[in-house]
Write a structure and sequence with these properties.
By secondary structure, the chain is an alpha+beta fold. The protein has helices at 10-14, 60-84, 129-138, 141-160, 167-187, 197-207, 225-238; strands at 25-26, 45-46, 94-98, 105-106, 109-110, 116-119, 124-128, 191-192. It has one domain (58-242). Strands 1-6-7-3 form a four-stranded mixed sheet. A two-stranded antiparallel sheet has the order 2-8. A two-stranded antiparallel ribbon has the order 4-5.
């Protein structure tokens, strides 16, 4: 995206003000972890990053490398969007891994296992390390980029003052924004898509969809697997203009 001037677009229209916290834990995924079988080996990498992993073997270093790259690229992407709209950008303050129920807290409330959340009170992303590594091994590394992108999108919603009446609206928009971040980063060659990565996105989204019996209007509803997949790939293919930011 060109950075000269103050281009109009979905983000420029939405950037009306920075806001303070809109709640405690915004975002996350259902408590049950990914269940899908692992697809073929692949790796979504930052350009210039080594692609040393040739099999499904995963260790703490390779997982942390991918988390670090995902954070770096999300910072870069959203900074460029804010810059293009003539606004200052403040990245997410920190990324917090945790291992046990209540080890990390948001607004005085302990965070549960098997989850990842954005906490507006403190402006941080927290994730269950054991659950996330399990998803990394089971679904693939591309899922980690989606997971980080989704939670980062909640932080952007806070910065834009976006607040819907139903959580499902907030969540599906965050899925779309995560798709836009990843699709645009791949098109700009900040990230490189490798064989099987699109399947990993799909497998991960299928694994984190709400149970079909969950009422769409229920507090905490995120959307069915089909809804989440549609929202993500709409953003992936059409960028932020598809995410209802205008």
């Amino acid at each position: 995206m060109a950075r000269s001037g103050r281009p109009r677009g979905p983000l420029a229209a939405a950037l009306v003000a920075l806001v303070v916290a809109v709640g405690c834990a915004v975002g996350g995924v259902p408590d049950s972890g990914p269940r899908a079988p692992a697809p073929e080996t692949s790796r979504l990498v930052g350009t210039g990053e080594p692609t040393a992993r040739a099999d499904r073997t995963t260790n703490a270093d390779s997982f942390q490398d991918d988390i670090s790259v995902a954070v770096e690229k999300a910072d870069l992407y959203w900074r460029s969007q804010f810059d293009a709209s003539g606004r200052s950008f403040r990245p997410i303050s920190r990324i917090v891994p945790y291992r046990r129920d209540g080890e990390a807290a948001c607004g005085g409330q302990g965070l549960p296992r098997n989850n990842a959340v954005y906490c507006s009170q403190g402006d941080f992303i927290a994730y269950d390390l054991n659950w996330s590594v399990g998803a990394y091994q089971q679904v693939g590394d591309a899922f980690v980029y989606y997971l980080l992108g989704h939670e980062y999108a909640h932080g952007i919603q806070v910065r834009l003052g976006i607040r819907y009446n139903f959580t499902i609206q907030q969540e599906l928009q965050a899925d779309c924004m995560a798709g836009a971040y990843l699709g645009d980063s791949i098109r700009s060659q900040q990230l490189r898509l490798e064989q099987g990565d699109l399947d990993e996105f799909r497998e991960g989204l299928l694994a984190v969809g709400d149970d079909p019996s969950q009422p769409w209007f229920a507090e905490g509803a995120h959307g069915t697997a089909e809804q989440r997949t549609d929202s993500f790939f709409r953003g992936y293919e059409k960028s932020l203009s598809a995410c209802g930011l205008d």
